[in-house]
Amino acid sequence: MSAAAIEEWRDDGRAPDLAGIVDRARPLVIRGLLRDWPLVQWARQSDTCFAERIAALDNGTPVDTLLLPPEADGIVGYKPALDGFNYEHFRVPLTLGLQRLAGYSRRERPPGLAIQSAPVAACVPGLLDDHPAPLSGVTAPPRLWIGNQVTTPVHFDASHNIACVACGRRRFTLFPPEQLPNLYIGPPDLAPTGAAIGVARLDRPDDPRYPRLKLALAAAQAAVLEPGDAIYIPPLWWHHVESLERLNALVNYWWSPLDEPDYTTGHAQAALFHAALAFRALPPEQRAGWRQLLDHYVFAETDPLAHLPEDRRGALGARTPQVLERLRELARKYL
Length: 335
Description:
The protein has about 325 residues and is α+β, with helices and mostly antiparallel strands.
């Protein structure tokens, strides 16, 4: 079953508009957006050139690195009994990771190695000046991901995400948020990389343990990105990322979906666990009642207190600093 193509930006001579891309609330591939990045030029020369240039800029700061045994097939995930993860975690300098990748590239069946979410400013700050943000308006700090043929199963980010392929090729397979019931996600509080991931393999749609996976695959969108290509992934869209070459590198930018002081996406994650604690064990009729309350006061598109004077809407009024502090106070009070 082949996935539909992710929509691509049409070059009409104007630079892509970040606000317009975000407002669409759909994934978008932007071909060649970073074609002039030095990282991309190094990769086009050779893997060796790319690795040597990165190593020359490495200041030795340890970064998160995952090592998977060959039998894991490069797929980051769980042990068979879901009682732990199928990799070892290390904190090592980028150069050591690159040296290991060079050695593994000569093996017929190498271990998987993935350098994860390395803050560019912390470990290779020399990249910052020559690698501007992919779009005007993106101010988030860049993060670097390097590895061999490693796959991150379906997972979501609560933030906006622009991912830019710098070396190698990556296949992105995306699913809209409503496909969650068909994706067979592991426990959200036991996740290999901090984000809950799928336990079903997309390349095994006939696995009898996951009969609804085919429904998700029917709704999938996919694209293979080359060096210099970028993809925008909206918050809460599930994405499965396969690195296809013996050396792959990606730079990504995450930023908050809400431009509000002190807001973090951790608030929503915490609310999920609080909701499970508060509602999951209630009788069905009470869960239905609380669902109605949440739909009305939290998820409705209209103002649930529009019938009240604006200055009498309490903690659900306009999100002023005072109202936000009142919400935090109430959240602490009822815990």
